[in-house]
Design goal:
CATH class: Alpha Beta
CATH architecture: 2-Layer Sandwich
Low-confidence stretches: none
CATH topology: Folate-binding fold
Number of strands: 6
Number of helices: 2
Mean pLDDT: 93
Bound molecules: zinc ion
Shape: globular
C-alpha cells in the first residue's frame, strides 16, 4: 500500500488515511467582483494537469485532519515530497531531476 508522509505528524501513514484536495497553489483573486468571466473560469476550473510533477493539496483526514501540499510525479504515481501549507512551491525542475534519479 502507498505510504504518504504527513509533514505535521512527521510520519508515513497508509494512503487510506488521506484525501486528495485538488491542485495546490491556486490563489483566490483578491477582488472577485472585478474579474472577468474568463478570469473566473481560469481561477475556478482550469487546472494544469501536467504529465510529470504535479503540485497537489492533500488532507490527512483520518489523522491530524490538516491540509498540506505534495509534489507527485503523475507518470510514476510516486510522491516526491510533501510540505506544510503556506510553504513556498518547490522548483519542479529540481524535483523532476530528483524523481528521475530515484527511478534509476
Ligand atoms: Zn497528519
Amino acid at each position: 500500500m502507498l505510504q504518504i508522509y504527513c509533514p505535521y505528524c512527521k510520519e508515513e501513514r497508509p494512503e487510506l488515511e488521506f484525501r486528495h484536495a485538488g491542485e495546490a497553489h491556486i490563489a483566490r483573486p483578491a477582488d472577485m467582483k472585478s474579474i472577468s468571466d474568463e478570469e473566473f473560469e481560469g481561477y475556478f476550473f482550469i487546472r494544469s494537469n501536467p504529465k510529470g510533477i504535479a503540485f497537489e493539496r492533500w488532507r490527512h483526514v483520518h489523522g491530524c485532519g490538516r491540509f498540506f501540499n505534495a509534489a507527485r510525479d503523475t507518470v510514476s504515481d510516486k510522491f516526491i515530497t510533501t510540505y506544510e501549507a503556506g510553504e513556498p512551491k518547490p522548483d519542479a525542475a529540481e524535483l523532476a531531476a530528483k524523481s528521475g534519479e530515484a527511478d534509476k
